[in-house]
Amino acid sequence: MPIQIIPLKGMPIIEPGDDLVALTLDSLESMGLSPEDKDVYVYSHVIVSRSEGKLVDLNDVEPSRTAINFGEFTGKDPKIVEVVLRESRAIRRMAPGVIIAETKHGFVCANAGVDKSNVPGETVVAPLPDDPDMSAATIRRGIKDRSGFDVGVIVCDTHGRAHRDGEINVTIGASGFEVIKDRRGEKDLFGYELKVKRTAIADELASAAELVIGQSDEAIPAALIRGYDIEFSEESAANQLIRPRDKDLFI
Amino acid sequence: MPIQIIPLKGMPIIEPGDDLVALTLDSLESMGLSPEDKDVYVYSHVIVSRSEGKLVDLNDVEPSRTAINFGEFTGKDPKIVEVVLRESRAIRRMAPGVIIAETKHGFVCANAGVDKSNVPGETVVAPLPDDPDMSAATIRRGIKDRSGFDVGVIVCDTHGRAHRDGEINVTIGASGFEVIKDRRGEKDLFGYELKVKRTAIADELASAAELVIGQSDEAIPAALIRGYDIEFSEESAANQLIRPRDKDLFI
Questions:
Q1: Residue B58 has what pLDDT?
Q2: Does B90 reach chain A within 8 Å, measured CB to CB?
Q3: Does the structure show a pLDDT above 90 at A119?
Q4: Could you identify which of A72, A149, A230, B123 might form a hypothetical disulfide with A35, taking C-beta atoms 3.0 to 4.6 angstroms apart as the criterion?
Q5: Which of A2, A193, A241 sits opposite B5 (nearest CB)?
């Protein structure tokens, strides 16, 4: 059976308080689909932040002296820098045009994941959800309660990365399944030894989802991946994907 | 239309000289499929190296003094270290158990991508193909010649990465399509501004493919991704995915 990556069509502009579970089930129904066990639902973080009201109106932001300094150095709007700093626990690198931050959750990414979420006329930015693992868990429970099916949920963001050009979609919140598949000791039936030892399945699912998210003429903020055999887990979370700095030989 | 990730079933253990194009078309036929325009075929680098005879028998390897030294420090077989060094243009980091190398192509990865390709009883390792972009181009032309269809081809490898735990599949060879999708200036129909500016589509396709490659009981060394709208390009290549060290703010 092929794995399918299905764009969730028909989602409206998400506003604070919107029910992403209901909108997901509505979208499925409009496509003649219903949830199945082991479905993986992948949501762009911006719609999760918006639904949770995690929005900042730049008109309300008073930049600190630090934000003004950094804004001058980087060429960025000091109000945006102020929001970035509020979302960061550390700055990793700064250069003109670039702030690579470590978010409060521990993710290393440009601008601490603060996205302009500028529906026209808005001056609003959407930082990452406060607890994207919790956001994912809440959506997962909602789908379970309303449909009866056990699914996996991912909240995703696009990150630049070391060594390789371009951005890819990664998982910043996850619930319901093992985010890393430990394959140590496995061999495939050819006898090729598995070099891959610990596959970051959640990130591969997030990247797969971006092949439909925001790629078409129609705006697609979420995707369903069907046919991948997730390993259910109650404990797994995206924070398990963070490599501690002192164990990071790739930097 | 959903995107489909289809495992290429029925591939034998690949030996030097094997015709990956013929084996691909045979696999498709066995599943009742035939190529279509814009198909993307993703091959694990180990089968490409094997088909090209890029194999090293460790019994034939005489480790240098350097390889012996590094072997003692890292705890690795000095013969494997010797092969890693032959494939590397630089070493980025070394620690017990770990050599992070910069391959001759410029990819930064563990062990310069040298895989044990140990069909039982063999002492053979498979380094990366000498020119994975050329390997991909050759397969692409073969599929075009024999089927008439214009497809994209990826040669993939699994890499650990900075900041994030676990490995993901990435593209080390590509042919026929833009590996980076430049979306600067685009807006989606919601009006959300696209934060993602340059999406490394080839890497997202490679990661999607690994959801079926080597994941099932049956050994799957390659995948077909159908339904993604690649942008054809004759010039694009995986080496465009290499971020030059002096422009890398993520390290």
A1: 93
A2: no
A3: no
A4: A149
A5: A2
Adjacent-strand bridge partners of B171: B156
Domain A4-52+130-241 sits in CATH 3.30.1330.100: yes
Chosen CATH of B4-54+129-242 out of 3.40.250.10, 1.10.3720.10, 3.30.1330.100, 3.40.1160.10: 3.30.1330.100
CB of A170 within 8 Å of any CB in chain B?
yes
Distance CA B213, CA B41 (A): 12
- Over chain B (251 residues), the average pLDDT of each successive run of 10 is 94 94 98 97 94 94 98 94 97 94 96 74 87 98 98 96 96 98 65 67 98 76 96 95 91 90
CATH number of the B56-126 domain: 3.90.1660.10
Which of A83, A168, A205, A246 should we substitute to test contact with B (largest number of B Cβ atoms within 10 Å)? Answer: A168
Query: Which one of A108, A124, A128, A163 makes the best mutation probe of the B interface by having the most chain B beta carbons within 10 Å?
Result: A163
pLDDT, tens digit, 9 for 90 and up, residues A199-237: 999 999 999 999 999 755 567 899 999 999 999 999 999
What ipTM is given for this predicted complex?
Answer: 0.95
Cβ neighbours of B231 in A, within 8 Å = none
Within 10 Å of residue A62's Cβ, how many Cβ atoms? 8
Name every chain B residue with its beta carbon within 8 A of the beta carbon of A167.
196-200
- Which of A25, A167, A112, B149 lies closest to A10 in space, CA to CA? A25
pTM > 0.90: yes
Grouping H, G, I as helix, E, B as strand and the rest as coil, residue B30 is: helix
From chain B, the residues in CB contact with A180 under 8 A are 165-166
Segment B30-41, tens digit of pLDDT: 999 999 999 999
pLDDT at B189: 44
The answer to whether B73 touches B83, Cβ cutoff 8 Å, is no
State the smallest CA–CA distance between residue B77 and chain A in angstroms: 16
Spell out a b/e string for B66-102, using b for 16 or more CB atoms within 10 Å of the CB, else e.
ebeebbeebebbbbbbbbbbebbeeebebeeeebbbb
In chain A, where are the structural domains located?
4-52+130-241, 56-126
Note whether A204 contacts B211, CB cutoff 8 Å.
yes
Chain A contact present for B33, CB below 8 A: no
Which among A167, A233, A241 has a CA at the least distance from the CA of A202?
Answer: A241
**Contact call for residues B194 and B203 (beta carbons, < 8 A):** no
Q: What does the mean pLDDT of chain A come to? A: 91
DSSP letters along A4-40, please? EEEE-TT-----TT--HHHHHHHHHHHTT----TT-E
